[in-house]
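User: Continuing from earlier, I have the next pair ready.

Assistant: Great, send them over.

User: Here they are, in order.

Assistant: Folding the first of the pair now:
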Amino acid sequence: MSKYVIKCLAAVRAPLEGIRGALKKFDKNITIMSHEKNLPENLDIEAVRSTLLEAARAAGEITLPVFRSGAVVDNKEDQGFDPVTRADRDAELAIREIVEREFPEHGIVGEEYPDKTSDSPFSWIIDPIDGTRAFISGVPVWGTLIGLTHKGRAIGGLMSQPFTGEIYLGLAGASTRLWDNEKSRLSVSGVQKLADAILFTTTPALFSRPQRAAFDGLENKVRLSRYGCDCYAYCLLAAGHIDLVVEPGLNIYDIAALIPIIEYAGGRVTTFEGGVPDGGGDIIAAATPELHRQALDIMGSK
């Protein structure tokens, strides 16, 4: 059996241990990258870092035991299907409790509960289980998203996948993957041409009819396209495994945490119109400016 397979099996057997080990061994001394956003001088980065990691661990201790357990699923819509589980709600409460303890003056925006308004320019953006459909289907591409915004711009973010034991963290100009007591710096692929690119979207069914026609045209130009990875696809982009993610109709809590992870790894994220993505909308995330421009030229007119 290869070392790779053994590592993968170890991650499945003890996923939370991977997160706990990462918390213990995470090196706080990270070099700030040249494209770092201007961070507020009054922000305690180490307090933000520890809060993100503690909240991820707390959420994982709630969501992981429910995953693949046959949990009861509620539908938030009268028509259509928007699933939610008790794990979604309880995990968000756990995250909110930690954030409010550490940063009581900050605002909070979450998927499952009303916003906590504040006069502070800082807000925490929470999606306790991004990819609930994957979660209830037993597919480990869901994740807990926790982001921090300042005056509406995403400046820090985390995606935690407790089943695999992975944490993707974007903060203070650096993007990092934590797994199995190891830390690795993230960097996008550098692919510049659509013909060389790997494209992801959750499902083409989410596009409007004009958007779907444009997406089909984009899909025909790339080397490979795949569906169904939710937030995990954005982290694969930051890690250099894929090159392009295109998705319509995202809410703020679907994207805010992922923007710093991608941008601090060297990628680019905008709306289909080339605008600021931090509040959500129709999103293009790309490994390079050149690839982003080509995708924008196709999707931006729809």
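And the other member of the pair:
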Amino acid sequence: MSRFRMDTRKVPWRMELLRRWKKDLEVHRESVKEIEKELRREEMTGVCRSLKDLGRRLQEEAQDAEKLLQALEEAAARYTELEERLKVPKTGEENPAYDEDGRYGGSQTAPLAVFLEEKDETYQELCEIIRSHYPQYSDRQMEKLVRDLELEGCGYVALANTLFGQYVGREEQFAEIFGFPMYSSSGELNTDLLVMDLYCSEDDPEKTGTTREEREEIWETYLKKHGVPVDVRTVEVTADSYEELSWEGELIVGISPCVLFDSGGNKVLEAEGGHAVTVTGVTEDGMFRVSSWGMEYYIRPEDPVYERIQFQQVCYGQPSPDREKREGELTER
């Protein structure tokens, strides 16, 4: 979300001044016409001519003032409409990554499923991406890499999910920037290709999982290579503050242990270790709706079951400031 803002509080006052100026011009023009009538004597011909010229200029200025007033009113109306649109939170409903009738965000298990099938065009495209980073990899090495992604790729998927909403209506630009189309020939988002390209580009094979600080560096570094400004920042989020924060960018959250609920607040999954997911909304009772493994789940931030909940915000269009990296965080898998 852009931070673009304009102070329009003085616009109505300026418009009122403009209306008064236009009215004054019209009054002065009428006064000039009255004076001109009283001076229609032969010896006053030159003065009358000057008064006519003055009246004509006053009329032109009044017309210009009317045009300026109309333009200002139109510009103010357009900006007000834009400002209101900018204030609408970017929820999952606006990001094509979240399809309630199909996949709800990316999944770290999806590329492996494609690899085991070895059939569709996505398999060939995944192979091309891997070999663009690792030209000497054999088929077995590529499969191992995809299996590693399945084990530790949640942070990469959470980051990738946030990108697609930025390119709605700009799909051609997405293809130019990342080297593959935003949608497959079947109409599905190419989330798997983006996740694979990100993982191959930025993963450290000596480590497992990603910390909050590593996710920040991974996404900012990857997008910088593609000329896309982004700032991944640590934020504090509550159910009450979510709406306002979401104006600035989408949110991801790292939790430990991995405990997920359904929409009714029932625990449906529990596993040791950390997990990173994309936040797509908030419920009336304070649960956060999240995307994980291509499905919709919920987390209950106030539940004592969580030892750690760490939020990050992904703000596009904003270059990242230099910051000190903190160490010693638990990893999410």
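Worth noting for the second one:
The chain has a mean pLDDT of 83. The two ends are 28 Å apart (CA to CA).
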